[in-house]
Amino acid sequence: MKLTEMAYRRVVVKLGTSVLTSGSKRLDKAHMVELARQMACLMRAGIEVVLCTSGAIAAGREHLQYPVLPDTMANKQLLAAVGQGQLILAWSQLFAIYGLHVGQLLLTRADLHDRERYLNARDTLNALLAHNIIPIINENDAVATNEIKVGDNDNLSARAALLCDADLLILLTDQKGLFDADPRKHPDAKLISQVVNIDDSLRLLAGGSISGLGTGGMATKLEAADIARRAGIEVVIASGHHPDVIHKAVSKEAVGTHFSAIENPLESRKQWLLAGPVTEGVLVLDAGAASAVTQQGRSLLSKGISAVKGEFERGATLQLVDESGKVLARGMTRYGADALVKIAGKHSDEIESVLGYDYGGAIVHRNDMVLL
Ligand SMILES: Nc1ncnc2c1ncn2[C@@H]1O[C@H](COP(=O)(O)OP(=O)(O)O)[C@@H](O)[C@H]1O
Ligand SMILES: N[C@@H](CCC(=O)OP(=O)(O)O)C(=O)O
């Protein structure tokens, strides 16, 4: 199939540190140019590419000649601050070979948390692509503290895919795809070539990163795949060193692990709810409310809340869990924590008399809720 006949219009390619360094301690520019060639080829065929690149910390270590530093947050930020410049310089030089400009977006979770900033970032991505410029995204590691960071580029790339309304997310790594066990520990593990549903049994197969290069391993790649496919985006996890891997993934050739998108994707605001805000608290639902919310698509009423955890204001995004602690949904609350503590377990009719005001019976309205 020719690239111009492809179903995909916009693709996010995520390159892990493991791919960019080819397992070494330095950026493998020879391989990066090959990846740039494949992406440039897509752009030429009219398929827009957004690159989500890791490697800032590795590039910083290389540039500073492998300093011996204690493993602290500040030192990682130092390495990222040095390395991000080197990384974007490398990419801009490599894409220039193919006559392409690049534009850098350094994001943190805080940029996605606020819907207005989220929409701003989306406008920037669209503007770059409209001018045939490749957006290059990384986390703004140099300023991101634990509270405001996404934390790993798998999740960041899924959020970028939602942000720019991509139709394919390609996660390239040092393994051929998702295996039924970590191939580093189980050499006889088998590649899973197709995934139609991400459930707890699949999550159990996906381990962390043990190479010392990447962050999160397959576990974060599965989280990313789950977010993307709920938004109607297909996902491929494959080896960044497989010949012509990007071209093959976009051509729908069998490569790595393919995740189908779900058929009725979430609408845009719910996509943001799923991927944008950090949750600030937890509502524990009794059995009746858990069933009403998950089985019948109902809003959450005060009567069904058995506990409230955390300090939060009205408008915060919360986790909704059942009494065993299983996360059922995330959603935006119409009442702050102080009020909820007073009305939890009470009938909707009592809200006004208990609080002296009433924002309505729905504590988390079903339009402000995403089931997980
Ligand atoms: N079920 C699995 N299938 C494949 N790889 C797995 C699995 N579980 C854990 N892994 C680990 O995930 C690693 C890839 O993730 P990571 O090290 O974070 O790389 P990257 O830099 O590409 O994000 C692999 O090297 C592998 O050891
Ligand atoms: N933002 C960090 C990478 C974080 C990360 O998730 O790394 P990886 O697992 O290699 O994709 C960096 O540029 O070094």
TrEMBL record:
Binding site residues for substrate = 54, 141, 153
Ranges where the PUA domain occurs:
281-364
EC top class, as a word? transferase
Record keywords, A-Z: Amino-acid biosynthesis, ATP-binding, Cytoplasm, Kinase, Nucleotide-binding, Proline biosynthesis, Transferase
**InterPro entries found in the cross-reference section:** AceGlu_kinase-like_sf (IPR036393), Asp/Glu/Uridylate_kinase (IPR001048), G5K_ProB (IPR041739), Glu/AcGlu_kinase (IPR001057), Glu_5kinase (IPR011529), Glu_5kinase/COase_Synthase (IPR005715), Glutamate_5-kinase_CS (IPR019797), PUA (IPR002478)
Q: Name one GO biological process term.
A: L-proline biosynthetic process
Put simply, this protein is called Glutamate 5-kinase
* Record's keyword annotation contains Cytoplasm: yes
Q: Which reaction does it catalyse?
A: L-glutamate + ATP = L-glutamyl 5-phosphate + ADP
Q: Which family does it belong to?
A: Belongs to the glutamate 5-kinase family.
Give a GO cellular-component term: cytosol
Which residues, if any, are the signal sequence?
Answer: none
State its Enzyme Commission number(s): 2.7.2.11
Q: What does this protein do?
A: Catalyzes the transfer of a phosphate group to glutamate to form L-glutamate 5-phosphate.
- Write out the annotated subcellular location: Cytoplasm
**What pathway does the annotation place this protein in?**
Amino-acid biosynthesis; L-proline biosynthesis; L-glutamate 5-semialdehyde from L-glutamate: step 1/2
**What GO molecular function annotations does the UniProt record carry, in alphabetical order?**
ATP binding; glutamate 5-kinase activity; RNA binding
Provide the binding site for ATP: 14, 173-174, 215-221
